[in-house]
């Protein structure tokens, strides 16, 4: 093969949280997730760049690792990519070792290990801005000589040093030697000690301690990691987060709702009465619109999560929660996957790759979908707005926000309970170690926070367009056809396919207080949770054209009993209604069995919880 | 005077130097693996340790400074590290 024509392949390798993904984004213009904790990246991502001389170069972003001796699935990805063990893939032409310049000791050891792989290497001394701010003196020439590797200083988040890096890589790729072929072997403890001593010697020779060391991290930690105070702060943060999701979003949501209402009225005025008007107003505006309204809430939730992630709080929260999680039989590293599941269970399930023990990983995957993902927000908010009065309790807390907090708590507690049961019944065994680096705190960068929020908004809108919109056309069609017979007395939807299906399945759901309109909404809601909200919007709009432009919550408050509303909430705490998550569970566990186990146990819990809630509420007079 | 203790017995504020990594009485695969992992995370003989924070329940886990890196560990794992505690000056 002609080496000159083939594009050079570069792999970014380094300790967790050293800025590999930030560098990848700076090189390729991608928007892969960057955050201030170890274990953000869990899969390989490839990107292409065009270098100055018009050639292309392929860049591979990899999960961070302390050693090639991979222990967990994410580290295996890195090992296999570096050693070229993946089927049909050669080892990279150049390894770019990405180092956090302020934290060199461990990466120096890793570099010594990487040298045994026998590939040309370039060292990117990243976070050089922080090193300079601290007055850290690194003797670059000496370091270069000691390691025998060219060095480039970079600031990935500011795209500084990126061009130098590319030319250094190009130069290194020129030296491509076919001679050395992977002399790497998994080091034993003695070899590790030897390499660590060597790294320590290089460190002493080349790096002088910072003149202005970071004392802020220590001072913040003494507050945030305080045994009692720290836990209180964590609880307060979560509480404020869910309150904010509720109260801050209201004006924006009202705005969107008013806009959509006006749009519905406007469209109804200009389109001739009949099937098209019905499709657009009932199917699209009432259906898709009822989900779009939740964009502000989802963005507020993400704003909190992004800020906490970038600041460096996640590892601290994991520290504070470790004992509680451990008591429930969860692995110490399960916290971040579970917290990610607040956004969406899919990245949460994937993030479980950082867990080395297979059983612990499986436990984490099985409970991750119980965490309240952002797709549940529309369902929860809608029902809460319809049935829970908007009033202040205890002088400061909003009752609706409090119920929301309770639903999140229910998700968390049930995840702990389920993992406890799994541990107790199925897998009694050794507790896996918990070891985690606590990164230095960083001020979140406004621009990258905004970019991340925008990406989130785009994902949400794309889902609305790709999944919800076509499904709503379907729901609308099923609830519109066939037309009612001449002289029908019931609303048209009663005679439609959807009405027939809903009524056929109603007996199954009657014990938990669901009516047939809800059953219709649950069916497309299998695709994604928020689809149920859209479907309710469409179903009720078709059933009663008067409500087409009204606020869905008001309609529901008139149609459902309180007990039914609460049972619906309880159902959604547990129901595994997300095909995409189930697909990822199948892929990550590599088994259909576990996916079906998840479906069965979650539906079981959903039915049970809804049943108990409904019966209790009826008994208390909420029927 | 200085004392040699298991890191799992250390208390908040203790400073010292690691003198031994790995529990050299047990040679099962689990103990060997733990030793290698600790080494990879910077817990090597000669590294300076300062115990910074303890969790609420059972003072577990612990957060410490290892040379200039901050790391959290459970006391269970910390039991395979031996440190020479230095009296506070
Ligand atoms: N100040 C500064 N911050 C940086 C720089 N590069 C990365 N960061 C920050 O460092 C943190 C980690 O960056 P990532 O790119 O996620 O690190 P990673 O190496 O991909 O981490 P893993 O995927 O967990 O292995 C983020 O908070 C970044 O914003 C830099 O050059 N300067
Ligand atoms: Mg990354």
Question: How would you portray this structure in words?
Answer:
The complex is a heterodimer of chains A (623) and B (89). The model of chain A has no long low-confidence stretch (mean pLDDT 87). In chain A, strands 2-3-1-4-5-7 form a six-stranded mixed beta sheet, with helices on both faces. In chain A, strands 6-8 form a two-stranded antiparallel ribbon. In chain A, a hairpin with a 3-residue loop joins β9 (392-393) and β10. By secondary structure, chain A is of the alpha/beta class. Among the domains of chain A are: 3-208, Rossmann fold; 248-293 and 444-560, no CATH class. Chain A has helices at residues 20-28, 73-83, 105-115, 128-133, 140-147, 162-174, 189-206, 216-224, 229-247, 250-270, 275-292, 295-311, 313-327, 335-340, 345-351, 358-367, 376-387, 399-426, 446-480, 497-509, 516-522, 529-543, 552-559, 562-574, 579-589, 592-622; strands at residues 8-14, 45-50, 56-61, 94-100, 121-126, 137-138, 151-153, 207-208, 392-393, 397-398, 435-437. Chain B is an alpha+beta fold and 89 residues long. Chain B has one domain (3-86): Ferrous iron transport protein A (FeoA) (SH3 type barrels), CATH 2.30.30.90. Chain B contains two helices and six strands. Chain B has helices spanning 29-40, 75-78; strands at 3-6, 15-21, 48-54, 62-66, 69-73, 81-86. In chain B, a hairpin with a 2-residue loop joins β4 (62-66) and β5 (69-73). The longest helix of chain B is centred in the middle third of the chain and has 12 residues, at 29-40. The N and C termini of chain B lie close together (12 Å). The interface between A and B is large, with 46 and 38 residues. β11 of chain A pairs antiparallel with β5 of chain B. Residues 20-21, 40-41 of chain A line the site of magnesium ion (MG).
